[in-house]
Amino acid sequence: MRAGTSHRAEILNYRKDGRQIWIETNLVPVLDEAGRVEQVIAIERDITAAETHEAELAEAKRAAEQGEKTKRNSLPR
After folding, report:
1. Which structural domains are found in the chain, ordered by start?
2. Average pLDDT, rounded, for the chain
3. Which of 5, 55, 63, 76 has its CA at 20 to 30 Å from residue 69's CA atom?
């Protein structure tokens, strides 16, 4: 941040009710005329649904690959 570059991260966080949520945070420095960081703007968004979907796709891919491997191994030779 001190160098004036932006930063993006995904953070596992918790709601007040204790449920886990994934947050994408983007931190963007605003520089003054001298090039010093004057303030930082933070933009956050809930990406829990996207993270869940990505995990489901990865599991489906793994299951499909395992099924294909099992199928190949069970074919008569």
Report:
1. 7-72 (3.30.450.20)
2. 91
3. 55
User: Phi/psi of residue 32, each to 5°?
Assistant: -85, -175
Kindly tell me if the per-residue pLDDT of 75 is higher than 80: no
Reading the block at residue 19, the tokens are 């449920």
The residues facing 23 across adjacent strands are: 11, 46
Q: What is the pTM of this model?
A: 0.63
- CA nearest 6: which of 24, 32, 26, 23? 26
Tokens representing 41 are 């703007």
Residue 77 DSSP label: -
By the 10 Å C-beta count (0-12 exposed, 13-18 middle, 19+ buried), 14 is classed as exposed
Euclidean distance between CA atoms 26 and 19, whole angstroms: 22
Q: Which amino acid is at 10?
A: E
